[in-house]
Structures are given as structure tokens and as C-alpha cells.
Amino acid sequence: MAVQPLHSSAPPVGLASPAHTSDPDVVRVLRDDGSLDPAFDPHLDPETVLAIYKHLVLVRLLDDRLVTLQRQGRIGFHIGSLGEEAAIIGSAAAVRASDWLFPCYREFGAALWRGMSLQAYMNNMFGNSEDPAKGRQMPDHYTCRAAKFGSISSPIGTQITQGVGFAWAAKMRKDDLATLVYFGEGATSSAEFHNGMNFAGVFKTPTVFFCRNNGWAISVPVERQTASSSFAIKGVAYGIPGIRCDGNDLFAVYKCTRDAIAHAAAGGGPTIIEAMTYRLSGHSTSDDPKAYRKEGEVEHWKKRDPIARLRKHLELEGRWDDARQQALEAEVDAKIKDAVAVAEKIQPPSLESMFEDVFAEPPWHLQEQRDQLLKGPRAKGH
Amino acid sequence: MAVQPLHSSAPPVGLASPAHTSDPDVVRVLRDDGSLDPAFDPHLDPETVLAIYKHLVLVRLLDDRLVTLQRQGRIGFHIGSLGEEAAIIGSAAAVRASDWLFPCYREFGAALWRGMSLQAYMNNMFGNSEDPAKGRQMPDHYTCRAAKFGSISSPIGTQITQGVGFAWAAKMRKDDLATLVYFGEGATSSAEFHNGMNFAGVFKTPTVFFCRNNGWAISVPVERQTASSSFAIKGVAYGIPGIRCDGNDLFAVYKCTRDAIAHAAAGGGPTIIEAMTYRLSGHSTSDDPKAYRKEGEVEHWKKRDPIARLRKHLELEGRWDDARQQALEAEVDAKIKDAVAVAEKIQPPSLESMFEDVFAEPPWHLQEQRDQLLKGPRAKGH
Amino acid sequence: MPQMNMVQAINDGLRFEMKRDERVVVLGEDVGKVGGVFRVTQGLFDEFGDDRVIDTPLSEGGIIGTAIGMALYGLVPVPEIQFADFIFPAYDQIVSELAKFRYRSGGEYPAKLVIRTPVGGGIRGGHYHSQSPESQFIHVAGLKVVCPSNPYDAKGLLLASIRDPDPVMFFEPKRIYRAAKGDVPEGEYTVPIGKAAVVREGQHVTIVVWGAMLYEAIAAADEAKAQGVDCEIIDLRTLWPLDIDTIIESVKKTGRVVVVHEAPKTCGFGSEIVALINEKAFLNLEAPPVRVTGFDTPFPYTLEMEYLPLAHRILPALIETAHY
Amino acid sequence: MPQMNMVQAINDGLRFEMKRDERVVVLGEDVGKVGGVFRVTQGLFDEFGDDRVIDTPLSEGGIIGTAIGMALYGLVPVPEIQFADFIFPAYDQIVSELAKFRYRSGGEYPAKLVIRTPVGGGIRGGHYHSQSPESQFIHVAGLKVVCPSNPYDAKGLLLASIRDPDPVMFFEPKRIYRAAKGDVPEGEYTVPIGKAAVVREGQHVTIVVWGAMLYEAIAAADEAKAQGVDCEIIDLRTLWPLDIDTIIESVKKTGRVVVVHEAPKTCGFGSEIVALINEKAFLNLEAPPVRVTGFDTPFPYTLEMEYLPLAHRILPALIETAHY
Ligand SMILES: Cc1ncc(C[n+]2csc(CCOP(=O)(O)OP(=O)(O)O)c2C)c(N)n1
Ligand SMILES: Cc1ncc(C[n+]2csc(CCOP(=O)(O)OP(=O)(O)O)c2C)c(N)n1
Ligand SMILES: [Mg+2]
Ligand SMILES: [Mg+2]
């Protein structure tokens, strides 16, 4: 008789994107007809839903505009959230004012929702002297402490472990806050995910791990990231409860995030949420997805557009229509145009600024290097 | 209504060592009375069992002797396997001649079983010129390609990922072999465990992950390594089946390992085995466990001594007795004494050898450094 | 002879070696179907299949750790790290394992592989798509480090690196991936590891440089020439083991040297080159060796052209050194 | 004044700072109940509880990554890495994150912590319990690097490091953990970061050294003195930012310099020191600056005393340099 494993490796069902939202394990609230499933309805007040909808539209138009600016060569780069807006803003809207966000790089919608100004964000896109990152990092690599929003860096996953440490520190100080840590499903392969999840489990930190499963890590599909049956189930390895939700369903995302935050705040420890969504755009303005994915897949997901689905809900409730939509888009367009116009006019950062903030005070070697640069000739071509 | 997680975090039952072997999920064959549970009996032929028993005794006496040599200052260090012999040798005995071992650092019993000579091992303990590692690494950091046994290094977990890559390469070349990768439960917290398990799951490599859960990582108990309900269950995060066995039960270890190897050989992919055992000694000759663990725990496990349990089985079958034991010990003692005497007389490695094998051929800078050292004065005090 | 850019030359070299030696396998993030984010592995997936051109999970530690295992088995993996800035999750496997394997195993387990990764700035990459970490690998005994400046050397050094018995870090200057073009022979040829190229002979100042900055050095040398300063330019090609003879021979002639690199100045490879020149040509030095390098700050975005040691910063160093 | 060894002095410094500032927390492998494998944190667990003296899972990346998060929150974590040889799994968090946090966030998110870790050989530790990786951190902009050579400096520099606004790598020379003894004031005092100590004045040769090798330099200097060579010995104490003024002042006097360190020679910190001396005191140099260092091999076990730059290897360098 052969030994029976205490668990067998489930085939990776429901891992590949198109199958996602038909998975019975996945929390859904917003039905195709725009109505809400009462079972999991978070009972968001109508004003908030409307505010979120308007914000989603802003983010969508902003994405669109930034891609154009990049194509025009007016900004260097953009990495957007097309198709993932509900996952990003629904989760950001569900946390408390005391909670902190540890972003990946697609969450500008969350930063803006939390109070980062559109102008500050746009300044980062242009890397000018008023960019919160002082023009030191690429576009979409900004920071906003006032919004309790972390510092974005490129290395995948590093924010996960940091977000756990931050929550752990708050727990030590008995401060009532949790952290919401964003990352893509590809990041679950990084050492940071393992370290962050393991420490969070052992020390029961108030951390919500928010995994945006958008189907792809640049050109690598989910089946190449893991052989597990889902990303949420990885919590088992760390004693952390996991849950999957329809990431294009604002209400499901909101519900799962709010519950997980409440669980953490009550001392229950961390939760991992897998929001099943889809990256409708290329990975970034540097990427052409046609090289690796089928149009059919994109079509499937376009039909599940999170903004269209929310609009349908509002229309069903008679709270939205074309006229309102046009008015909103016109208003938002103007806002964005203004921010771009202002950002484009702001000076680049000063040469001196390149040597600041390496240390609290520049030591002798940085003073020397700065002075040498200042007295030398300037570079052309930038 | 609150959202129900798709799995909840099981409390870490059965994780702490003393509880281990009462866990119903744990595979056991060897009963306390020395008889075998027919359900999982691997049906080892009596000669093999006897050979393994004799080897266990060798390893036990070797451990004892090496600790003494270290106390006497004749060797610098030893890290032993006291209490873990059945887990280590039972697994090594269960793999096929074509399979490769990727060791942690407690598996000298496995190396010797696979054909490494006692003398070669002893030469490593003395770091002499005939040490397979040429006196370059600490004691217990040797290598034996002839025994299909890897190169031991100190950084925890690195062999896990390498053992996966090795098996993966064999699979690519359609060679019929698997790798058996050893590590302690503490190593499951390392990035290497995550990387190795994830790649093994995704690429279905013929790898058996053998986790020696000996209760402690130096002074850190298992509850500080993970909040998961076991180490084997971590396989869920990678789509890898996991199984736990009584690590002090030679037959259970043998059975689980042989099945896992067969599963891998048949193209079934990797398995993680958690062998529940206990480190009866300190972490190494540098460690005093009294500072952090209770004697009661040690007593509990001494009663479950894997060698005593196997002897009881042999005695039950009338194949062992005190006379045989004394004869064996005398024989083994002599062997060890000889190996020590020889190793102690062998010259230290040559100065030249310090500059070899950094590259296949020493480049100019190493030739310069070598020549400079040779023409300079010698160091005292070694 | 076909004209190729760096990307095409490296691609051609990979294809040639994979045809020649079935032990050669390519793995990394996005190296398969799309052929890498810089398209360096384009077409290899279709030609050699996903068993030899492997898209991996997002883990540099996993890529290098498993590649080492493959190397121990006898394959010759050529892993790609998407940007050198992202190599650090694999740093432990590289410095603690790969570099030490042959040595610590008494020669029983050489681990042969070639790690390809794009380095350098000038593509608006900011902190994490611009760095040049060569000195962090040169310091570690057991690694060879290569950085070609043109398509011919890129292919020739790649073939040599794949056939070399030791692990090689193969740094590709991404700023000139497509800008640097030239004749590249079809099929077989190698550029020896450990040999620099004197790309221009001169009497007054020796410039030691490699990778993308070679072209800045040439531009600066042209300017200097116009001002009466005649520079000898050495393109290292291999950073370690260093071709010390070529450098010392040149310094003995000129007595003056300027080292140029993109990496931050402090503990950059330039410091080692200066120290070695002191050891071997001290009495020949007529001016202090000068380093023109990136600054000791993270790599900036908007001001990257001020950060990089471009021609406009190299020129004054040449003139001052010449007239010291 | 109480006599202490290095272990006691660092332990005393940690206790003092943890009492003074409740934001200071210690975490690492085995730092709790047993007080660390070298007993440096002994007693802190009992005194401050497991909320401030934390045994962690076996993951350096997790230790440093979470410590950075704590620092962002406003705590002042003092993580211990059990041996510097095991810091590389955390290298990415240190070089890509910790070192760049203040800069990349425009000053919004300084990440203040002190990473303590034992370095150096001479304890029969072989490859992985002996290394001195300082240059791999000095090269990275944004980190301060400290390495005390005696109990007084150890405590004083630790207090200064914990209070300094920037991240500090605090390297502890384990070979002299117990061998180096001396008077250590109770309570409050600091040794400033960035200031070297001239431990012996001399006319003929400047020795630049730090950590455990200081005592080898002193022994060699005593021998040299007997042979008529009068050495000035500079104990750097802080490696970065370097106290360049003290070095240059000395070199201007002696015109001759020998740098000693345990790390491999190539791209070790010695190369940077030599390069800086060239920049700032070229015309004062009467002999080529010499480096006496570990060799460019992994750190050996049996032959470690031949590998280390001990007095017997420093002495000839002093004599040759003096008579160059
Ligand atoms: C350590 C590291 N390796 C590689 C990269 C290059 N890279 C940037 S984004 C990305 C894919 C990330 O996929 P996922 O985590 O799913 O996030 P998504 O982009 O889908 O939101 C990769 C490989 C990186 N930034 N950092
Ligand atoms: C990367 C790394 N960190 C720390 C250490 C120090 N260390 C050596 S063994 C050990 C504990 C290992 O525990 P476990 O994995 O359970 O193996 P066991 O010793 O119990 O067999 C530690 C922390 C190391 N060798 N490597
Ligand atoms: Mg993704
Ligand atoms: Mg253990």
C-alpha cells in the first residue's frame, strides 16, 4: 500500500485568468445585471459608491492621457492600471484613515484616493523639481507620506516585507493601524513574499496582503509562476487565511479588504486576498502584449470591465447616465490638462539636489563631487 | 455576514516537537514493541536492515568520538546527527544508485552509506591535504562526487535550489535520476526553500525535499519558524504533495522516501517529506543547548532513540543481542581509531593549494599573490 | 560580412552556441516567447523549444540557484537577469555558491555558467534600470567579468565566455544595444577573455574604459586631440582578470591615466585600476591617475546625463591630466 | 572605570540605548533567550522582553526587510546578522532599499537602522564564518560603515551609530571579541562617526588599518621600530565616510603608506584608499602605496593564518616601503 500524502497537489484550476471569475470559491457581489448579491453586500453608502465611480473614471482617463504623453515623448514612461481600477481603488477605499498602504507600482489611483494631489503625481511623471521624488526616480515611482502611502521602488516584492515590519512596529507600540500591501501575482515568486508572509504569520502582524492577480507578469502567465491551485491558498504555508475575490467587482474587493482589515485590527493577524483581475494594457508603455497573449483573452476581460460594471450598477439605481458621464469626463479632462500644463512648465531639479538626501548631511566626498560638477561644463541633450 | 476565507489558518498543532509523533497524520511503521505495522511496511530484506543498523551504530560512535576530539582541541568543530540517524540514513538507503544527494551539514552518515570512505571524511575533519575539500572548508564541509553526494556549504538552504536545478537538468536530458535534498526545518524560512519549491512545482522536477524537523534551529523553536500547521503542508503553496513521517522510525522514513522517489521517477514530480525527529545534541560543538531548552524535552526524545528502537526490532526477531552489540562496537571503535590516527598524521595542505581551484587556471594576480606568499615569512601558531 | 547591432550579435552568438552544444540552455524572466525585454533572445524559443529557452518564475534567486544546479549536472546554463539592478536577490547564490564551488569542493564540482545582464544608464531608467555593479562581483574571488563595447566583441566574448571553464558575468551595456553597429562574422570566432583592446594609440594620456563609455572617451579624445592632447584609449573588454600588461605598457609610455566608468566612484573598479598602476608603474606616473565616474549617489532620473561620465566630463580630466 | 571586552562593551551599549530610547529594538537569529551565538545580546531578552529582543525565523532577508519597515514606522531597529558571511540573502534589501530610501523618497522616508554583524577571520571559521565584506557596502551610496578595534570605541561608536540619522553597518571584529579588553566608561559617551584615531605617531610610514588587524599592525610596527622604521598607525574606526583628512595629513608627513585589511585585495577598501591618496597627496608620495590584504581566494580553513595579513606579512611591507 502506498503512503497517502497528507495533501495532494491540486491541479492549478482557476489559476489561468479567463477561468478566474467562474470559480465558485471566488467572492462576488456585483452581478452582471448590476444588482448586488445581498450575501456579501458591504452596504456602501451611495455617496461613497458615486465618489469611487468618479475616481475610477479619473484614473482611467489619466492612464489614457499618460500613455499619449509617453508616445509623444513628453514623459519617459508610464505603468498603468487599465482594467485593475476596481481592485486598486476598492481596496484603498476599504481601509481606515489610520492604515498605511505599501504600494507596488500600479496603484496611483490609490494614492490619489488617499489624498495625494494630482499635481504632485503629475510632477513625478515629468520628474520635475516639485516631484515628491525630486526627479530622482522614474515616472510612477513617487511617494506620499501625507496620504500614508509608501515609497515606490522597482525591485519586485521589497515592499511586502517592509509593510509587514511597519505593521509589526505598530503592533509593538500598540497603535491601532494595519498595513495594506499591494503586489502582483508574479511577486509571489519573490523571496520577499516568502519572508513577508512568514514573518507576518509568526508574529501575527496586522497586515493585509493584497495580491493583484492580473494574469500576467510581463509576458509570463500565472501557470509559470506557481503550480499551486491559487495564490490565496499560499497562505496555508504561513498559517495565514486566504481569500479570493472578483477583482473587477468593486463591492467584492471592498468587502474582502474591509473584513481583512477588521480581522487584523481585532488582533486576528494577517490575511492574504487574491483579487482576480486582468491587465488590459501592456505591462507598461515599454511593452507590446501582442507578442505573447491572445486577443480573445483580452476581449473576454474587456467584457468584464470593472468601471463599466460599476456604471451599470449606478444606472440600474438611476444614479448615472450619459449626460453625467460626459460632464464628468469633461471636468476630469480639464483637471488633467491643467496638471500636465503646470508640470511641464516646472523646472527640472537643481544639480545640487542630486547630492542631497543620500545622507541626512552630505559628507565631504559628496560636497567635493557636487562642487566639481557645478564648476564643470553642462551635458547636452536632456 | 462575514466572508469565509477559502481556508482558515490552522493552529500550529503538532508542530512543537514533543507532540510530533502522537500526530495521527504522521506515518509510522515501527511500533514501540519493535514490531512493524503491516500497513506501511516497506518489506526491507533482513540483510539490509541489519546493515543499516550497523551503520547507525557506526555513525553514533563516530559522532561521539568527534565531539571528544573537538573537546581535546584536535579538530576545530563538529556538527553531528545524534538522534537523527534514522531520518538521515533511512532516507539515503531508500534512494536508487542513480539518484543524487544534496546535503545540508548533518548527513555524514548518508555520505558514508553511499560509499564515501571513513578516511576521506576524517581527513575533512582534520582539514589535511587529503581532505576532499583540500582543507579549505570547516570540518563537516566536505564533498564526494563518487558517492553522488554534493558539496556542503554553510549558507542555509542554498543546496535546495541547486538540487532542484540538478534534477531539472536530468529531466531535460531524460536521464532516470532524482535528487534527494536535505535541510532542517529552519531552512524552510530561507528564500532558497521558497525558490526551490516553487521552481520544482512549476517545472515538475524529480526532487524529493527531505525536511529534518528536529525541533530546533540552534536556539529557535519550530513555532518561531512558521505559523503553519506543519512543514510538510507548505507544499500546498507550490502544488507539491507533502507527507510527515516519524523520523526516528527507520521503516517509516525508508517507506516515505522510496515512495517519493518512485513518484518522481514516474514523472509525478516533487514531494516534500517532513521527518519528525529531534536533535539530541547541541546544535554543534559550539553550542550549549541548556541555555534554551528544557531537559524534559530531551528526556522525552531519548526514550524514542531511533537506534534503540531499531535494535528492539532486531532483538524481537532474534537477530541481535548484547554480544553482537559489543563485538560491533569494538570493531567500529577500531576502525574510527585507525582513521583518526591516519588523518592526524597527514600533512596540512600546501601553500600553493590555497591558490588553486579559484579558477580552472590561476590568472596572473593569483600567481603573483602565491609567489609573494611563498617567498615571504611563514605564520606562527597553526 | 553582415552588419549587426549588439542585440543581434549577442542573439547570433547564443544561437550559434546552442546549435553547437546542446548543453547550453537559456533561462530567465521573459526570455522565451517574447525573446526578452530587449529582444536579445528573440527567436531562440521557436528554434530550440521551451526546454532550452525557459521562461521562469519571477525570482532571480531561483534562476541562478537552479542554473547552478544545472551546471553541476553538466549543462552550460546562460541565465539572463532582466536588468543588472535586479541581480541582488541572486547575490548570495552568486558570491557564496557559484564563485566558491570549484574551490570549496576541491575541484570536484566546478559550476560553469554565464550570467547575461544589461548594465548602465542613459535610457531614462532611474535608480533601478541603470546601475553598473561590476565591482561588487570583481571583489568576489572566482568570477570572471566581461563587458563588450561593440557587436564584434559581444559575440566573440560570448562564445569565449560560454566555452571558458569558469563562471562568467557577462555585462551588456544596454545604452548601446542598438546604437553600436558593426561587422560581425557569421559562425565561429572568439575574442579571448582577459585581453584588452587598444582602440587608439596615443602619446600623452591613457584612457582606461569599457562598455558604453568607450564612445564618450573617443569623443572626448577627439576634442582633446584638437587641443593638442593625444590620448591612447584602452577598451578593457574583460574587466577581470584584468589585462594589466596592456595598461601598464601604455602608462609607461604616457605616464598619465584617466579611468572612466559609470558606477559610483567609491570602491568602483576604477579604484582597483589606480591601485594596481601604483603598484606596477609608480615611477612612471607623471600625474595623479584620475577617475571620471558616476557620483556616489543612487542613479538619478531627470539628471542622468549630468550623472554619467560623458565626454563633456572626460575632456577636462584629459586636459588637466595632460598638463599636470 | 570597569574593564570590559568587546562583547561586554557592545552589550553594555545596547542596554544603555534600549533604556534611553524605547524605539530601539533588537532582532535576529538566536539573539533572544541565548543572547546570540557570541552572547553579545545576553541578558537583553530578560531585561526588555521578547517584544524588543526578538528571535526571528531563519531569514536574513526577512530580518532586514522587516527592520526597514520598523524604521519607516519610527523605531530604531538594531538587527543582528549572525555572521557577516550570511548577510547576502539580505543584500537586496540593504543596497536596493535601505541605502536608497531617503534619496528616492525625496527625504520623506528616511530608514534609520543599525545592522550589527561579526566580521573577520582567525577563529577557524573557513569560507563562511570569516569574511569581511565592507567594500561591498561602501560602494553602495547611502550607507555608513563602522568597524571598532577596541571596547571603548565599540560602545562609543555603537551609541553614535544608533543616534546617527543614517543607516549604519556596524561590523564587529569577532576575532577580538574577547581578546580586546580595556576601560569602558559606564553610561553615556560617544565616539564620533567619521573620525579616525592616530593610535601611534611616526615619521617614516603611515599604516592605515581597522578592526582586528590593528593589533597585527602594532606588532609589525614594533618590529619595524627595532629595525629603525618609525610607523604612524591610523585606526580608521569609521570606514565610510572616510576620515580622509587624517590620512592625508599623515601621508604628507611620511610620504609612504601601507594599507592593511583582511578582505580580498581586488576591489577591497584598500584600493579606494590608495586611489584617494593619489588624488590628494600625489606629489607627497615617495613610495608606491602598498596593500597587505587577504588573497583573492575564498577564505581558507587550515591555512587561515597564512591567508590573513598578520604582522609577519605586514612587517616586510613596512620595511620595503620605508626603504623604497
Ligand atoms: C527583482 C525584480 N526582477 C525583475 C523585475 C522586472 N519586472 C518588473 S515588473 C515585472 C513583472 C511583475 O509581475 P506581477 O508581480 O504580476 O505584477 P504586475 O506587473 O502584473 O502588476 C518584472 C519581471 C523587477 N522589477 N524586479
Ligand atoms: C544564511 C544563513 N544564516 C544563518 C546561518 C547560521 N546557522 C547555521 S545552522 C542554523 C540553524 C539551522 O536550523 P535548521 O535548518 O533547523 O537545521 P538543523 O541545524 O536543525 O539541522 C543557523 C541559523 C547560516 N549558516 N546561514
Ligand atoms: Mg501580474
Ligand atoms: Mg532544525
3D architecture notes:
The complex is a heterotetramer, with 2 copies of chain A (382 residues) and 2 copies of chain C (324 residues). Residues 8-21 of chain A have low confidence and may be disordered. Chain A has a 5-stranded parallel sheet, with helices on both faces. Chain A is built from 11 helices and 9 strands. Chain A is of the alpha/beta class. The termini of chain A are far apart. In chain A, helix 6 (191-203) links the parallel strand 4 and strand 5. Chain A is globular. In chain C, helix 8 (213-226) links the parallel strand 10 and strand 11. Chain C has helices spanning 6-20, 44-48, 60-73, 91-97, 101-104, 134-138, 151-163, 213-226, 244-254, 269-281, 304-307, 311-322; strands spanning 3-5, 24-28, 53-55, 76-80, 114-119, 144-146, 168-173, 181-183, 197-200, 205-209, 231-235, 238-240, 257-264, 290-294. Chain C has 324 residues and is α/β, with parallel strands linked by helices. In chain C, the strands form 4 sheets. Chain C has a 5-stranded mixed sheet, with helices on both faces. A 4-stranded mixed sheet of chain C has the order 5-7-6-12. The model of chain C has no long low-confidence stretch (mean pLDDT 98). Chain C is 36% helix and 20% strand. Chains in contact: A-B, A-C, A-D, B-C, B-D, C-D. Chains A and D meet through strand 2, helix 5 and helix 6 of A and helix 3, helix 4 and helix 5 of D. Bound molecules: thiamine diphosphate (2 copies) and magnesium ion (2 copies). One thiamine diphosphate sits between chains B (106, 154-156, 183-187, 212, 214, 216-218, 279, 283) and D (29, 58, 60, 82, 86, 89).
